[in-house]
Design brief:
This protein has 89 residues and is mainly alpha-helical. The chain contains three helices and no strands. The protein folds into two domains: 6-38, no CATH class; 47-89, no CATH class. It is globular.
Length: 89
């Protein structure tokens, strides 16, 4: 993996945002690029996107109702389910 400079990161983050993905940092951009090489169309077999319970940062379906860590993009939010429950109320 090559290291990313600031301009490269800004361009990569903008491209990811256009695809509905929020990147955290340059390391996340490097992993996102690998993800896009493996899944060029962004379609992951068996993993829906923007379904009933999506990750707020990448849109891929979370695995369980109690999950606070997205196994697809790595987003972690200990209050994710608290906010989720408040939305349903």
């Amino acid at each position: 993996m090559s290291h990313s400079n600031d301009a490269d990161y800004q361009g990569g983050a903008a491209a990811a945002a256009a695809e509905g993905v929020a990147l955290r940092d340059k390391e996340h951009l490097a992993y996102y690029r690998v993800f896009r090489q493996v899944f060029p169309g962004g379609e992951v077999p068996g993993l829906p996107r923007h379904s009933s319970d999506p990750c707020p940062k990448c849109g891929y379906q979370l695995s369980t109702p109690t999950q606070t860590f997205c196994v697809t993009c790595g987003h972690y939010d200990p209050e994710l389910r608290t906010r989720h429950e408040k939305k349903q109320a």
